[in-house]
Structures are given as structure tokens and as C-alpha cells.
Predict the structure.
Amino acid sequence: MENRRPLIAGNWKMHKSILESVEFVNQLLPLVADSLVDIMIAPPFTSLFAVSEIIKDSNVDLGAQNLFWEKNGAFTGEISPLMLLSAGCRYVIIGHSERRQYFGETDETVNKKINAAMEAGLIPIFCIGETESQREEGKTFSVLDKQIKMGLEGLTLKEDRMLVIAYEPVWAIGTGKTALPGQVQEVHLYLRNLLEKTSGKRHAAAIRILYGGSVKPDNISELMALPDVDGALVGGASLNADTFSKIIHF
Ligand code: PGA
């Protein structure tokens, strides 16, 4: 891997109360204080500020799981990029397959969210991935192609580190079925070549591409050994401090 510092990111999804979140970070921080990789956790909105107060001087960064692209206004139930910044976030997960599947997110809304995040100075973790039937029908690459091109449309990258891609095959999320190392490397290399076209060679070489989908302590090292895998987006296994710390120390 070129000069790409690994990022291990935890997506808590809709888990943990404020108290449980605080307890988790108090357990995690001493376990990972020696780590040389970038670490991010994305608790639910309600826990962001409390967690940020505890981790602000640590080597763990904060992320949100979604945002809305407007700065403010009559958008009941939504959260703006500036609100996330004020809660202490540095990253934001955008276009997770669960949001596409259950909350009507499309490549167009994902594009608006990525733009808004970057404009505010948040680092988007842009999620893409094919479903099981799309893979079986041989559509994996055309699906990813469309997601990347539409998601990044009109976007000029100022800094390489301001964008992270997460490849999460939908059939591997929460199922215990991890993609095989060969399948993962094939897709990551394809994505890197595609990024060369959308964002230029230099950015493509520097953008971190994470793998997500049933990442566990016992499969992280073989995934991280792949040349185009620059980290992981971890769901279920990020909810326990010991387990997540094992993944961070791959
Ligand atoms: P999982 O989820 O690790 O529980 O499969 C990954 C994700 O959805 O980001």
C-alpha cells in the first residue's frame, strides 16, 4: 500500500445508549492507545457529544452515520454537517447499504451528502457494494461503476485524505459471509483504477479503500494483507471493546 495509513472504523448502527457508549469508550481507549492506525467510531447521533468529550485528546476519531445536505432549515428530524462538526465529528458514513435499502437513499442523494460533507470539512466514508443477486447476475462491476461515478459527480478533491471509500458487498453485511480475499482484492483494484478516471492518478493512489462485511478478529489480517485494502468498516464486531481492539491490532 502506497502511503495510505490504515483506517479501522466502527459503525455502531442503532446500538448503545449514551451510558453504554461512554462505558465502551472508557474501555476502548486504554486498549488502543498504542495503535499506529487511524481509528474511528460512529455511535448513534444521541451519543456523539458525550463520546466526543471523552475521546477528544485520544487517538480515536468520531464519525456520524449519516447527515442531511442542507445547512439548516425546516427539515424535521435531520442533522446538518455543521451540527456534526459541532458535536466533535471528523468523519461521516454516507450511503450505507442499509440507508439505501430502508431509507430510500439513491446515488443522487448520496452525491449531495458527499458534497455537503466535504464542503463542511468532514471526511465522508462513501459506502458502495453490490447485492447477492447483482453479483450472481455478473453485474458487480457495472453496479460499482455507477455508484462511484454518480456518487462522486461534480466533486473536486482538494486533499487525498478527505475521501474514504468503503466497499461493502451487501451479501456480506451482518451475515458472517466475508468475501474471499481474491474477490476483495479484485474489486478494490477495480475501484482504484476507476478512481483514477474520476479523480486523477495521484488522488486514486492516496484514497483509502476500506472493506466492510463481517470483518472479525480472525479474518482481519488476511484482508489487511491485500495490497489495495486500506482498512475496514466494522459493524457487529465493533460493538465490543475487546473484539474491536483485536481488529485494530490486526
Ligand atoms: P458487519 O457490518 O461488520 O456487521 O457485517 C458492516 C457494516 O455494515 O458496515
